[in-house]
Amino acid sequence: MDLEKLKRKQYFCQNLTSLMKTTFGEYIRELRTKNELTLTQLAAKLNLDSANLSKIENNKRDFDKKRLPLLAKIFDLNLTELENEYISDQLGKQIYEYNCSKQLLKVAEAKAEYRRTLKEKAI
Q1: Cys-Cys crosslink for 37: which of 31, 41, 45, 48, Cβ 3.0 to 4.6 Å?
Q2: Which structural domain range is residue 43 located in?
């Protein structure tokens, strides 16, 4: 892993600023309306049709992670912070759908920490 990617991952983990009580789709709608864009206008900028964007904003479809850099560019957002919002929403969705216990989350956190130590040993 190159140094830039490592720094980016560390920034992500150290700067989890999202305490939003909205879904990623709702966050996109909020960005769109604050910037006075119609659904059709933003959909065109994202190379989506407006029906798909509507489904994303209404939590009926997930946003494609590959479009995050474009979304960041459209709204002049920090890509890492936008990725934080996206990933935290995806994790929250999985936690909800699988009805995860706090104990399971602690185990997952410990496994993530273990993976970090493996990566550090490899560097």
Answers
A1: 41
A2: 3-122
